[in-house]
Amino acid sequence: MTKQAEEAEEAAEAVGRPARGRGRRPAEEVRADVFRVVGEILMTEGISDLTFERVARQSGVSKTTLYKWWPSKGALALDGYFHAVEETLAFEDTGDIRADLSRQLRAFARIMTGSPAGRVVTELIGQSQTDEDLATAFRSLYSSGRRRLAGERLLRAREQGQIRADVDVQVLVDQLWGAVYHRLLIPDEPVTEDFVLALVAHVLDGVSPRPGEHPAGS
Length: 218
Hints:
This protein has ten helices and no strands. It has helices spanning 3-14, 27-44, 52-59, 63-69, 73-85, 97-114, 117-127, 132-159, 169-185, 193-205. The longest helix is centred in the C-terminal third of the chain and has 28 residues, at 132-159. The radius of gyration is 22 Å and the shape is elongated. Residues 1-22 have low confidence and may be disordered.
């Protein structure tokens, strides 16, 4: 697209927008407007109703700018989704790894099953199979980011002696969150609070018989 064409497009899109004052807005403010609009669309209507044209119109940000920052609709949707749930899924550190895991996984399960976010993330995972830009963004922004936060919290617990020194914390992450994603994507069984608490208990306590206990059926 030529510079003249870009300017013409931005001028056309500006028609009907509310005045925002003179001068270029900070990038952080522009992104915040985009994230707000994308999050609202995703959580109320789903990814199928998300378009660059609609986001540009409702956020007051030109399509040229949107395409410059997000190479595909999927990548744009993922970024908006991530910022919509980021605060709710923050990983606390109270010093008690069992309590922190239980709290975080319960919050995750509530979002995934009790809000449109669960439907949105399954749509994003599905689309990432054919959208390379979305797949890359999903790994770098969401999946890797969530794994890093969980891994850091589990490493601190290991340093504090709450987890054995020989435990691979990334395997623990897969055991816990992978089990929830499995039930979301293949819904043979529901994601319930009892399920989440059992996950944490089984991982932290192990499934071998305790000293003095007899194996079931013996």
